[in-house]
Design a protein that fits this description.
- By secondary structure, the protein is α+β, with helices and mostly antiparallel strands.
- 35% of the residues lie in helices and 19% in strands.
- The chain has four helices and five strands; from the N terminus they run E-E-H-E-E-H-H-E-H.
- The strands form two sheets. Strands 4-3-5 form a three-stranded antiparallel sheet.
- A hairpin with a 2-residue loop joins strand 3 and strand 4.
- It is elongated.
């Protein structure tokens, strides 16, 4: 499959990506990730290995799009937790006393 990453064309194949990532130890995943074989790699690490470019030269979206088209499972950013409700001063005082504010 021909794809463009960081304005450079690449001919990528599923087997070629598997071969490139063989023996590469996955870094800690903190954002988007790609599952290759039985391992989960950060998207930027995969992009760096398969393109031999600096991670600053391409976006995670470019690599995610290419890996998805090749049939790899990709995971996005984990959902952010809902923000906690801010209590009014009266509600806060009531909660500290163990009674309900009216």
């Amino acid at each position: 499959m021909r794809c463009v990453i960081a304005r450079f064309p690449f001919d990528l194949t599923r087997s070629g990506v598997l071969e490139s990532m063989k023996g590469v130890k996955p870094e800690e995943v903190t954002g988007e990730s790609v599952i290759i074989g039985r391992r989960t790699y950060p998207v930027k690490q995969v992009g760096q290995v398969i393109t031999r470019q600096d991670r600053r030269d391409f976006s995670a979206g470019e690599v995610l799009r290419a890996m998805t088209q090749l049939g790899f499972t990709c995971r996005g950013l984990p959902g952010a937790a809902a923000p906690a409700r801010v209590l009014s001063p009266l509600e806060h005082a009531s909660a500290m006393l163990g009674t309900a504010a009216r």
